[in-house]
Amino acid sequence: MFKEKIAVLLKKHAGISEKEILSLLEIPPRQELGDFAFPCFVLAPKLKRNPQDIAAEISGKLQLEIPKEIERIEAAGAYINFFVNKTMFVKSVIEKILKEKEKYGKCNENKRIVIDYSAPNIGKPMHVGHIRSTILGDSLKKILEFHDNKVIGINYLGDIGLHIGKLIVAYQKWGNDKQIEKNPEKELLKLYVKFCREEKLLEEEALSKTIEQEEKEEYLENEWTKKAKQMLQKIESGDKETVAFWKKIEKYSLNGFLDIYKILNIKFNEITGQSKFSALGKKIVEKALAKKIAIKSKDWEIITKLEPLPDKIILRSDGTALYATQDLGAALSRYEKYKFDKMIYVTGSEQILYFQQLFKILEKLGYGWAKSLVHLPFGLINLEEGKMSSREGRVIFLHDIIEKAKELALKEIEKKNPKLKNKKEVAKDVGLAALKYSILKLEPIKSITFSYEHAINFEGDTGPYLQYTHARACSILKKAKEKGNANFYLMKNPKELELVSHLGRFPEVAAAAVSQLKPHLIVTYASETAKLFNEFYAACPVLQAEKGLSEARIELVKASKQVLATCLNLIGIKALERM
Question: Is residue 437 in some structural domain?
């Protein structure tokens, strides 16, 4: 309402559209600078004048046209600052939130979007390294759905590849079904580590850093590697005994994955393996050869020429599929099935080049939808003692992290609220909130060094602090009694005005999170909401205030609770009513 009114005013004098003005309006860093600010730098090239002079001239003209929604307009340097009518603004924001409830802040995009996320490898345990893709992808899915998009979440399992060949060899040689059934994650990892020790791979530092991990292993061949490759050939040719071992490993792994997803309350529309797309990927490789986009090397590998990007191998010399082969097939299959407007791959930043190559190949093959493919890279999660390595068994199991989070949360509850009902269930929700928040609060591209101390924290800028603030708002509302009508004119305290102004910004933050694919914007906003709400509560008595003001503050508590609950839902954290 207020931004739109400002845009109409400025349009007459700025010479640009209302839509452009709305995109340029800013929130000043301090309240004394106004509620909205328009930067005149953008007008300077067009008007060929100093932006300060432009701001002064337009501000002067607007003085004769100030509507009732605006208290005053001032020029400050190159900015035109707008001070809104506080009573009207407060009433407008709070009433809008309470009317729209969980729909407040959403915009109707109505697109069909596929997200590929989590994607653990069959035969390997889900460890702390998987948590970022899993939680980031889940939050992004929720944010996109919030804006009325049809979102298809796909868990693309690494169910084939050299690691599977290695595991089958190890399983046949050293596997014990009884031990594996007791603890499939850890026993399968032991087998994998044992194989890799026998294999004695050469140091990776000796190889080109532009070659992906899977391709590096192509060069590090000895008798153990050859055995693993033979297993892949047997799988692709349908050898019954080898396929039976493969399916056993897949079953053990998938059961472990599903247990973790259930605890994290994360659901997918589709769970599928890479192997499903090998045949289709090979057809695409044939098409690339026919169109002379790809060539056969002297070693009989199929390679695409992608200048200025490095060349990319898309099929092994023995005819078995690579990740790239399967990813080409999966992309085409998904488009044919879902006719998406956008497909987002949520994977580590070490795969930036790989996805640039993948998208380029699809573009060169003439698939117009390739321009709708997006890679959302995230930084690595390292351990304090260094980089994780499944090959060396240096990982922290995700299941163990979750259990530790629940255990620490229960200790906090026993200490602070021992009489709380359903303590174990609440402890699970609080522990997961701490864990998820620690992952989502950072911009995706930044790397993380994992430690229990930082990941499972309950003080300060944390997920449990947001839950506590929501529970506090619920407690206030349970004690409140309807007395009469809210008198928003009585709301003059800077703390309540600052909170209302902040709540009014939520639609912009929600829009930015979806356009930039950055859930951390919601996290940062939610943290600031909790901080401002608690400052408001400390400075402004709610239930003890005078008639009219008390009711107005109760409405503000309701609005704050609603916005906070929406934020928590978007980042996959349960909004608790009691803690």
Answer: no
Q: What is the pLDDT of residues 285-322, one digit of tens each?
A: 999 999 999 999 988 899 999 999 999 999 999 898 99
CATH of the domain at 499: 1.10.730.10
Same domain (yes/no): 371, 489: no
With respect to residue 428, please indicate whether it lies within any of the assigned structural domains. no
Burial class (CB in 10 A: 0-12, 13-18, 19+), 385: exposed
Residue 124 makes CB contacts below 8 A (sequence gap 6+) with 163, 188, 189, 192, 253, 390
Catalytic choice (127, 141, 166, 558): 127
pLDDT at 398: 85
Give the pLDDT confidence of 88-124 residue by residue, as tens digits: 999 999 999 999 999 999 998 999 999 999 999 998 8
* Given the residues 3, 91, 130, 470, the one annotated as active site: 130
130 noted as active-site residue: yes
Residue 424 in contact with residue 153, Cβ under 8 Å? no
**What's the pTM value of the predicted model, to 2 decimals?**
0.88
Greater confidence, 142 or 218? 142
User: Does some domain include residue 107?
Assistant: no
Domain count, the chain: 3
What is the per-residue pLDDT across 189-202, written as a single tens digit (0 to 9) for each?
889 888 888 876 43
Of the residues 3, 124, 428, 518, only one is catalytic, namely: 124
- Sequence letter at residue 296: K
Whole domain around residue 301: which residue ranges? 117-383
What does the pLDDT read at residue 123?
Answer: 85
| Alpha-carbon span 287 to 293, nearest angstrom | 8
Question: Is residue 397 in a domain?
Answer: no
Q: Does the active-site annotation cover 518?
A: no
- One domain, residues 302 and 361: yes
Mean pLDDT of 509-519: 96
Whole-angstrom distance, CA of residue 331 vs CA of residue 287: 15
Task: Label each residue of 39-86 as H, E or C.
Answer: EHHHHHHHHCCCHHHHHHHHHHHHCCCCCCCEEEEEEECCEEEEEECH
**Is residue 471 domain-shared with residue 561, that is, in the same domain?**
yes
> Do residues 122 and 53 both lie within one domain?
no
Is 127 an active-site residue?
yes
Q: At what angle do helices 423-440 and 398-416 cross, to 10 degrees?
A: 120
Q: Same structural domain for residues 238 and 290?
A: yes
Domain boundary among 355, 383, 411: 383
Contact 294, 304 (CB under 8 A): yes
Same domain, 154 and 45: no
